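Structure tokens please, single chain.
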Amino acid sequence: MTPNEKSGDDANPNEGMWRGILDGTDPVYARTRARLKHVPGSPRCKMCAAPFGNPGRFLMHLVGRDRWTKNPEYCGACFRVLEAYHGGAEIEASFLFADVRGSTALAESISPTEFRRQLHRFYDVASHVLVDHDGIVDKFVGDEVVGLFIPALTHDAHAARAVEAARALLIGTGHADRDGPWLPIGVGVGTGTAFVGSLGAPPVTTLTALGDVVNTTARLASAAAGGEILVAGPTARAGALDTSRLERRDLALKGKADSTEVFVLTVA
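Here you go.
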């Protein structure tokens, strides 16, 4: 081995710690998040769900989980973990991507202030749905939300919880209403092995996921029509869906050599 080469353990010295957090063998994180998600207040820490808003904000201050000034998406306790322990682990997880359909046309038809209000409402609904279904808000990017479901929080039910969250998100945006949605969205849900962990140098250090399943799920969300959830085949089977009653499609997704099997869910 040359001086510039590193073994897998040397290249990712914190893998054991991250695997314990992500797969639930270290129960502290799961227990902490399970308690904090029930403390009222919004928005919340992306990692542990500590509330930054009232009424829970004062309690979080007492236990050292104030919003971190270096990165307001995290509380101080979680950000110090991300900052100090770069790295992660490959785990089986499920992912949810949700895109606003026709956002360009929508932005042209309403004022910038109203467009911002609708996106903020979408972010708020999505945050509550993901937290309520034991998901982690990976990121908000423009008119898209990305959710991550890990074994530490969902055990073996991460695929089922991701599908349930997708349905709840369609309902929360009005797709089951007689008058139609107040904001049309399409959702993709996928399951597979991904690298999950702490990436980036402070102050942009973040908990995120990388891998083919992440990219594929993003493509599914882009391919979904308004009011549709496109569930990848492995997710449908792992999530115990009755696929015999669902529409099945084989999609040619951008960048994928083979077609991708999906099942279509709606709530209308």
